[in-house]
Amino acid sequence: MSIEPRARVAPERVLPGPVPMAPETAAQQRVVRRICARVAPEGMEVGVGELPPGGLQVWIDTPAPLGTQESWVLHHRMAREVALVGWHCEADADRLLVLGWSAACLHNRVRLLQSGLRRLADFEHTAQRAVQLDGLLGELSPDDEAPAQVAAAVCESIERRLRWPERLAELEGYERSSGLPHLQLLLAQVAGLETKVASACEEHLVMARVLARAVCEHYALHSDLRRAQREVLAETRRWVHASSMIRGSAGPRPGFTGGGRPHMGLAERRIAASVINHGTPRATPATAAPRAGHLGQGEGAR
User: Fold this and answer.
1) Kind of pairing, strands 96-101 and 87-91?
2) Beta strand extents in 4-81 (DSSP E only)
3) What pLDDT sits at residue 141?
4) Residue 298's pLDDT is what?
5) Residue 9: its pLDDT value, please?
6) Radius of gyration of the chain from Cα atoms?
7) Measured in whole angstroms, how far is the alpha carbon of residue 54 from the centre of its chain?
8) Which residue from 111, 249, 110, 264 is spatially nearest to 190, judged by alpha carbons?
9) I need a labelling partner for 204 at 20 to 30 A (CA). Which of 80, 164, 195, 289 fits?
10) CA–CA separation, 302 vs 298, rounded Å?
11) Around Cβ 172, how many Cβ atoms within 10 Å?
12) Secondary structure letter of residue 134 according to DSSP
């Protein structure tokens, strides 16, 4: 009996698996998801995925489809908040596209951070809210709560009012960079300003904690809450206005007179140092033409 030879079976073809996501893309997804989740109504799921040409796409996951107008409004609100970080965004009623860094958006973030620093230089509103327990008198009372609990609740409330701590926390763990030198320098400026804003916010929270505990201590002496608030506020106004150390966090450095290069923080130096100088070579001192202003100063000095 003849048996036909068994045919050779071709080896099973292994399909390529999914390409692993780059670490910087995964970090960007986390940041975008945090921002969009803050903007979306409570209980609404937000989906974030890679965009094949590059970038991210954001959509809203709901059991029932949203109306066109409501979806359009939500996606544009998300686009506005994400663009404040510095990304170029495009939105419609179906989804939000998060593309690369935008020089215009980064310049806008620089202006926002500088404006925030100017506002954070004023501690008066924080002092008043901390002494008044920031409207929490109906919920907290020095009779019922320990001073530490009162101070923690006041700090939490003031932190929400400052808004910057929450927004800066959304960027935690994300290393921002760009292959374009001018965008990298803008990112360095943004990182430095964010560090200063975070330090200024921390000073506000330290003040709020100290003043809230002081109100509790004064209240423990005479059990008169209104009197304790007046006493602490009167003491506060003297040293808040005289505290050049606190106000110096948002103002010029003592050694910086306005000319030359401003002070650079560690984050700014670290990012700016990675930029390759693609400009024209610098002129040597022998061939460099003196400035007109310097000529005038030299003639006047003679």
Assistant:
1) antiparallel
2) 45-50, 56-61
3) 63
4) 45
5) 53
6) 28
7) 24
8) 110
9) 80
10) 6
11) 10
12) G
Find tokens 């002129």 and name the residue.
Answer: 283
* Tokens found for residue 209: 């904690």
Regions of the chain where pLDDT drops below 50: 1, 244-266, 269, 276-282, 284-302
In one letter, which amino acid is 183?
A: L
- Local structure of 120: helix, strand or coil: helix
Locate the DSSP E strands across the chain: 45-50, 56-61, 87-91, 96-101
Cβ atoms of 38 and 58 within 8 Å: the answer is no
Cβ atoms of residues 251 and 114 within 8 Å: no
Nearest Cα residue to 117 out of 189, 200, 186: 200
Distance CA 213, CA 152 (A): 9
**Number of residues in the chain:** 302
Cα separation, 160 vs 72, in Å, equals 27
Contact indicator for 127, 207 with CB cutoff of 8 Å = yes
Determine the Cα–Cα distance for residues 47 and 40; give it in Å rounded to an integer.
11
Q: Which two tokens stand for residue 143?
A: 């009779």
Residue 262 region by backbone torsions, left for phi larger than 0, else alpha for psi between -120 and 50, else beta: beta
